[in-house]
Amino acid sequence: MEKQTNFFQSNTAKIIMVGFLTLILLIPLQFVKSLIEERSIRQKEVVSETSEKWGEDIYFYGPILKIPYKVHTESLQYEAKTNQHVKTISTEIRLAYFFPEELKNTTDVTMVKPLQRSLYKSNVFNAQMDFSGSYVFPNFKINSIADENIMWDKATILIRTTNLKSIKSQVNLKLGDSVYRFEPTQNKQNDSMSTLETGLVNLQSLQQNRKQNFTFNINYNGSKMIHFAPIGKTTSAKMSSNWPSPSFSGNFLPNDKNKKITSKGFEAEWEVLHLNRPFPQQSFETLPNVRPHAFGVDFITTVDEYQQNERASKYGFLVIGLTFLIFFLIQSISKINIHIFQYSMIGLALIMFYTLLISITEHSSFTLAYVVAGASVIVLISLYSISILKNKKFPAFIGISLTFLYTFIFVIIQMEDYALLVGSIGLFLILAAVMYFSRKIDWGAGN
To answer: What transmembrane ranges does the database entry give (predicted)?
Structure first.
């Protein structure tokens, strides 16, 4: 009579126990993920604080010619003494804003040495912006305003910008033969931007020549991004930098023919016509909201070290599950008994990889940390396997398998566009290998 195998000694029961242990190990793995997230949040806080002191994102809008004008309003008022209606004329001062006919910008962005506080670094830059362009004679007739009501002698020029405190030099505009200095003024637009405005501007030459050229420059300290508003009838912008991973953002993208991105930096050019945007070259009463139509560059780190750690930890379940599966297949094929406690030690060693990874990354680089942490865990598990499996053939196979698995995950983490494709193909091949090696296992049999 054939001896009946105890269910708890069968391969089915053992794989159920190993699967349950895998789920239990997700608890400490989740703690590791929380640690990575906590360190990442702390880094963002430090980066935000240091960037605020150095200089935040830059948004620029200008220069804008501002000319006040008079509006006369007639009204009838009743006087009880004379029992008559008397005509009165009230005068109100309003503002007209005129944008440049041409606006050209050349910006050179230099990424300076990262600001460091404790273990955290913040990428910051210095931006030298040079502007040139021209104004044409303002057309008030479009709004039916008589020449005698225009206050030519009260005209000024203004620019609007964020990050006012990080401007590193005086801002002077040369209009014709005259030079005007910009000074901070009260913000009347009820937004987060600041306004710089010149003193009274002599528009006599503009009235005579019907066109006047201007030039000015601004030196900024900043971080994160630089955006411009295309307020010229023709707006041209050129930006160059030593930052190798720009993200072109905003309402307009640079011309593909003149765009160059290398490991040493980038160059980009924009050309925007007034036909490409939904606001005119002049505005009466208030300035239009042109921020949604701005363009520029975001200086971002595509995948920082904490993001890489977070992505690596997401594969923790896969690493633990596949490692346990390898041990289980070896156990089933070789008839070597592996205790659930030994599985637990192996699982904890796999989780230690992620704590080693995040701690070493903060003091070096992600690549070096990955190599050191991966090699440490592979050696530890391989040596431990010798005492479990009682030979060197199977531990060598385990070491090679873990090396392949960690290398595969590292490649996926480094890839951006093809990560999903490569990951899917890799998992398919792993599944095929598991199906092949497990095809002859008797799941009801014990050891």
So the answer is: 12-32, 315-333, 340-360, 366-387, 394-413, 419-437
Q: Indicate whether 155 and 296 sit together in one domain.
A: yes
DSSP strand pairing (58-79 vs 225-228): parallel
Name the phi and psi angles at 279, rounded to 5: -140, 150
Final residue of a domain: which of 251, 272, 301? 301
Judge whether 1 lies within some domain: no
Chain segment 338-369, per-residue pLDDT in tens: 888 888 888 899 999 989 988 888 788 888 99
Burial 316-349 (b: 16+ CB within 10 A, else e): beebbbbbbbbbbebbbeeeeebeeeebeebbeb
- Phi, psi values for residue 145, rounded to 5°: -105, 125
pLDDT tens digits for range 365-410: 888 999 999 999 999 998 888 888 777 788 888 888 889 888 888 8
Q: What is the mean pLDDT of residues 104-117?
A: 82
- pLDDT, residue 376, reads 93
Please state whether beta strands 234-241 and 102-111 pair in parallel, antiparallel, or not at all (unpaired).
parallel
β-sheet bridge partners, residue 87: 76
Q: How far is CA 433 from the centre of its chain?
A: 40
Residue in the structure block whose two tokens are 């003494």: 81
Is 110 in contact with 244 (CB distance < 8 Å)?
no
Query: Which CATH number does the domain housing residue 134 bear?
Result: 2.60.40
Q: Judge if 166 and 248 occupy the same domain.
A: yes
Decide if 396 is inside a domain.
Answer: yes
* Alpha-helical segments (H) within 287-418: 305-314, 316-334, 340-361, 366-389, 393-414
**Residues 355, 288 share a domain:** no
Q: Is 330 strand, coil or helix?
A: helix
Range of the structural domain that residue 192 is part of: 57-301
Q: What is the 3-state secondary structure (H, E, C) of 1-31?
A: CCCCCCHHHEHHHHHHHHHHHHHHHHHHHHH
Tell me what the pLDDT averaged over the chain comes to. Answer: 83
159-185 residue pLDDT tens: 998 878 888 889 999 988 889 999 988
Residue where a domain terminates, one of 301, 333, 367:
301
pLDDT tens, position by position, 182-213: 998 877 666 678 889 999 987 876 776 678 89
168 in the same domain as 67 = yes
Question: Which phi and psi (to 5°) does residue 196 adopt?
Answer: -115, 135
SS3 content of the chain, % helix, strand, coil (to 5): 45, 30, 25
- How far is 349 from 354, CA to CA, in rounded Å? 10
CA distances from 82 to 74, 85, 160, 301, 374 (A): 20, 8, 53, 78, 100
- Residue 76 corresponds to which tokens in the numbers above? 């009838």
